[in-house]
Amino acid sequence: VRALEMERASSGRRRQLWANVAQARAELRSLGWPLPDTPVPIICLGARPGLDLAAIQAKLFSRDICVAHSQGYSSAPEGGALRIAIFSTHTGAQIERLVHKLGQLV
Fold it and tell me: Judging by DSSP bridges, how do beta strands 68-70 and 42-46 pair with one another?
C-alpha cells in the first residue's frame, strides 16, 4: 500500500520511466528491431536469423548487463527473445551502454 501511495504522490518517476522507455526503444530500433509503442516498460527483442540470443544474453551478463533470454514465455515470439526491463532509475548513459554493447554483439 505504501508503495502505491508513494507512486501516486510522485508523477516524476512515471515521466522518467516513459522517457527512459522511449529512449531505449528508439535506440534499439536503430539496431534493426521493429518495436511497437506499448504502455509496458519491458522491451522484447525477438529472434533474428543468425543470432544466438542465449549467447548474446550470456555475453551481456558478463559485461554486467542483465537481460532475460526467454523462449517459453507467453509473449516471446517464435525463436525466443531477449526481454529488457527498463526502470525509472536507469540513466540515459546506462541505456546507451546497453544499446552499444548489444550493437557490438549483433
Answer: unpaired
